[in-house]
Amino acid sequence: MPFCPSCGKEAPEEATFCRRCGERIPDLKAEGVGMEWTPPRRGLVNHVGAALSLLRAKPIIFVPEVAGVIVSMALTRLWGLVGRPTGMLDLWDEYLGRDWGVITVADGYPDIPPGFLGTLFQYMIGGFLFLIVLDIVSKLFTFATIDIARDAYLENDVDLGRSAGYVRSRIGLFIVAAFVGLLVQATFVLIPLSILSFVVLVVEDTGIRESLSKGFKLGIENFGTVTGLMALWIISYILFDMAPYVSEVARAIPGVILYVALIDLHYQSER
Most exposed among 2, 31, 49, 269, judged by the fewest C-beta atoms under 10 Å? Predict the structure, then answer.
């Protein structure tokens, strides 16, 4: 079975051009190459190129991740308003100095209201728990993105409703996986392996333990490529963040490219 030399997609023996990226498929028989020919190992540029080709052909892949960013922004704004009914934010402005967490009682504010510190502590704990919930909600949209990208990669029908239903059908598993991923990503060093585990969890429709095992193995075997993809993702995100007039929504783009590139890495490694 011949493969596309550009994106690595398998092609029918009679194919002249790749159905995914349009690259010319070499005539193996004419070139004297056996049909058991194996495509050369692909690198960073190949995986990114395959991701960009697929995203140009199927921009609908961006929709779940963009929707996740919008929901996260809405929840963040809602949380920012939670303290107002109790005057929490007003107390914060009045009794906390400009330096982070420095109470200005020593600078002439001896009349801190009773219970203020307790309320402040509750607010901070609530904020911490909110960030965990926000991360899990965001990950659910990421799982939908990976699912719809998998369908597009395999040239299956792409359906937002089907991907949403898929996430709902496994929502308990995905919530646990998102929390486990959050713990793993807290190490920072293991962030690439955590994201690879999310890809394996969806692409292979497997469990958390197996996805972690396969994701870590895949990441170690392709350490250079995975590290390069992560570096490219971080740099792209920073550039988007620095660019004027670029909204939070646009910052979802590097993440989607990363997920699709890792899907390509996964399937190419299976060959």
Answer: 31
Contact yes or no for 164/71 (Cβ under 8 A): no
Backbone angles phi, psi at 24, to 5 degrees: -70, 135
* 6: helix, strand or coil: coil
Query: Do 34 and 157 belong together in one domain?
Result: no
**Tens of pLDDT along 74-120?**
988 887 776 554 555 555 555 554 444 444 444 554 455 566 666 66
Domain total for the chain? 2
Q: Answer whether 178's CB lies under 8 Å from 135's CB.
A: yes
| Greatest Cα pair distance in the chain | 89
Instruction: List pLDDT tens digits, range 153-198.
Output: 988 889 999 999 999 999 999 999 999 999 988 887 788 889 999 9
Grouping H, G, I as helix, E, B as strand and the rest as coil, residue 98 is coil
Q: Which of 174, 175, 165, 171 is nearest to 132 (CA)?
A: 175
The answer to whether 22 touches 64, Cβ cutoff 8 Å, is no
Q: Tokens 């509750």 appear where?
A: 122
Question: What's the chain's Rg over C-alpha atoms?
Answer: 23
Residue 148: closest CA among 126, 123, 166: 166
Say if residues 95 and 104 touch (Cβ distance below 8 Å): yes
Do 156 and 253 share a structural domain?
A: yes
Domain co-membership, 15 together with 94: no
